[in-house]
Design a protein that fits this description.
Largest sheet: 4 strands, antiparallel
Structural class: alpha+beta
Strand content: 15-25%
Radius of gyration: 15 Å
Length: 125
């Protein structure tokens, strides 16, 4: 039996791009405040090449603690460190969504259609 499921239209409101150095500062000290909400994020290098597209149930924990500071290192950060990526050259942006899995999958699909592969540090969804 086939069942149709309809999803609402999802509109993303992306943040500006922030450098890893800007995100290192604590929000209480005038740094960037990353929301404690589910969403998707994108990491680019100084040339604008997308290195990673990911999702998170808590953007602040993933972006600030996992990617930037590495207190609870995310596997993407580990792979970047292993390959000698210079973190000062990276920028991150994010968008809040209640459907991070679906949005991440869509972003991967669009990227793959355009470039024929996933971003360098993105695992298959």
């Amino acid at each position: 039996m086939k069942q149709k499921i309809y999803f609402p239209v999802i509109e993303l409101e992306w943040s500006d791009y922030y450098s890893f150095n800007e995100l290192l500062k604590d929000a209480r000290s005038g740094g960037i405040k990353v929301p404690n909400e589910p969403g998707v994020y994108e990491v680019i290098d100084k040339n604008g090449e997308v290195l990673h597209i990911g999702r998170a149930s808590n953007l602040r924990m993933r972006v600030k603690q996992g990617l930037v500071k590495g207190k609870t290192p995310h596997s993407t950060r580990k792979r970047m460190l292993k390959n000698g990526v210079i973190f000062n050259n990276l920028k991150v942006r994010w968008a809040i969504t209640q459907w991070p899995n679906s949005v991440e999958e869509y972003l991967h699909k669009k990227y793959k259609e355009k470039y024929g592969k996933l971003p360098k540090y993105t695992k298959v969804t």
